Every structure is written in C-alpha cells, then in structure tokens.
C-alpha cells in the first residue's frame, strides 16, 4: 500500500555557489562554480539513499520508518514502512540495492529494534527477511551505513552502542565494519574464519565508499577531539577505544585524515567517478552534520591527500549523506529534523549539485 506526497515538480530554488577553499597544505585547486538545486523538500530526517537502475532514488527516513522513492523531478512516493523502533540515533538507517537488482529485485536495509540493530533484505512491498541480527543497539552510536562493494559483497558499518570495549572484541558485532555475502553468509575470504568482521576498533562508522581502484574508505564519528577518514584493510584494527585520531604509534592503523568534531561530524561519503563535475574526478566528498558543510578531499597517485575544501558551509544546515546519481550529479541529504538541527520550513531537503556549465539533463 502506497501513498503519494506531492511537492512542486520543479523546485527552482537554484543558487550559483562560488566555492571557497579552506585547505590544508598544499594549496587547494581553484574555486569552482556550482549550481545547487532542490530536488525534494519536506522529508523527515532522511538517512540513507540508494539509486535504482531506472534513476529513481530509494530514501529512508530514520524516525518514521518510511522507505520512499524520489524521482529527479521531485515526486515522492512512500513504497514501504520498515518496522524500525529505535530511539535517539536509532531507527531506519542505511539502505542499499542489490548489485543484481535487475534480476533479483532485492533491497537491503539496516534498522533498529528494541533488542538489536539488524540488516534485512526484501523486494519492494514484501516482508523484510533478516540476514543479520544481534548488532548491539543503543540510543547513540548505532552505525548503520550499508553498501555493496565492487566485489559484490555487502559491507555494514556499526557503532560501539556505548560499549567502548566491544569495538576491540572480534566476537562482537559492535564497532566494526562487517562483510557478508548477499544472502547473509560469511565469505570464506574474510580475514577471520567464519566471522563477518572485516575491520574493528571503530567508534561509530557512518560512511562507506570505494575509490576507482576498489579501495574501501570509511568515515566515523570521533568522541570529543577528532572525526576520522580511514582507509580500510581486511583485518585492520583502527584503535578505538584505546586511541582517537592519529594517536597510538604503530599499534593501530592511523586515519588518512582527521577533522575537529566541530567542523565535521563526518557522515556519508562518496568518491566521484565519471560524473557531472569532471574537475573533481576521483575526489572524495563527505557530508558533515555538526560542521554543516560538505568536505571535498583530493588525492595524488600515492593516496596522499593534496587538498581539503569546504563546500555549502552553513547554507543548508546539517548534512547527512552524499551520493553520486546515475546522471553524474551529486545528491546531498540534509538532516535538520533529526533533533539536533534548526529546521527551516523546507526541511529536510535533497540537494542536487552540478557545475554551472553542466549541459546534461537538468532533471
């Protein structure tokens, strides 16, 4: 059973944004003129976003449990409600579509119940079937990002659920990046036998994305000092709760870069590949919640960061997630109705970013 929520088909609210740089050494690339438009508005704390093969977007609302389909013209349709019953930061979180969606039709979701966080798969309109249960749940630090990697496996970011020590316990699902087969089985080439754990020592994983070489990167919330961007290796220990940021010597894997919690609260992330902003090919975009900005990171051929640039700073409030659309544009979810923002009458929104001289389809 579905209902339709109407909004103006073409929300014009288009701005010409001159991007200014706030860079680490060496200096950032020259400023770039972007066009920012609003695809949809009036959402309730959107959290996850995944595109279907036909270009429509699946969007999860954390608190309502609604799974929405959003078109590029701004039409919103509720297609399903997931039985999420989380509190605080819990609820309906990440969403992903099967890499074989054209033949199997499966959608995956991560959500909270009173007993656990869990991952389910289902075809739209059908009953969700659990493929992983027992991820520790709390009112905070629930992780929740899920994504399929280039190897066809499902990666799951979890939080420590306020049990700090669990992040170092490889028998716990808390504070980890997990790796599963699409049916929920444990891959035989996981780093620990018969164990879904792929990496550990994480506080609260929020973003998962791969560069053009297939290297996994993850973003995570720090505690009071540093948010992190990590380059993930199989079996790697990223140090929480023993260390935060770059501390820890050679005992733990250090982040690629860190941010102060005030300027970031690193959330969803995406590497850009063959998109509508060719100047940023291979760059990493990271949504910032507390920082109320979008970060752009560029890398050299060795994987070292060459520039960090702040985008949209203070213009749209808290930013939850960023995804590259099939047409190459960049879609960004705001998160001002999550209990920690200051929502405007339009919130929450989905923003669309292209270059000012982009000649593709505007919608």
Layout of helices and strands, plus pairs?
Elements: E1 3-5, E2 15-18, E3 33-40, E4 46-51, E5 57-61, E6 66-70, E7 76-81, E8 92-97, H1 101-104, E9 106-112, E10 117-123, E11 129-135, E12 146-148, E13 154-157, E14 176-180, E15 197-200, E16 205-210, E17 216-220, E18 226-231, E19 257-260, E20 266-271, E21 284-288, E22 293-299, E23 305-311, E24 319-324, E25 330-334, E26 350-355
Q: How would you portray this structure in words?
A:
The protein is mainly beta. It has one domain (3-355): Neuraminidase, CATH 2.120.10.30. The protein is 1% helix and 39% strand. The chain has one helix at residues 101-104; strands at 3-5, 15-18, 33-40, 46-51, 57-61, 66-70, 76-81, 92-97, 106-112, 117-123, 129-135, 146-148, 154-157, 176-180, 197-200, 205-210, 216-220, 226-231, 257-260, 266-271, 284-288, 293-299, 305-311, 319-324, 330-334, 350-355. The strands form 6 sheets. A 5-stranded antiparallel sheet has the order 1-7-6-5-4, with no helix packed on it. The protein has a 5-stranded antiparallel sheet with strand order 2-3-26-25-24, with no helix packed on it. It has a 4-stranded antiparallel sheet with strand order 8-9-10-11, with no helix packed on it. Mean pLDDT is 91; it is low at 1-30.
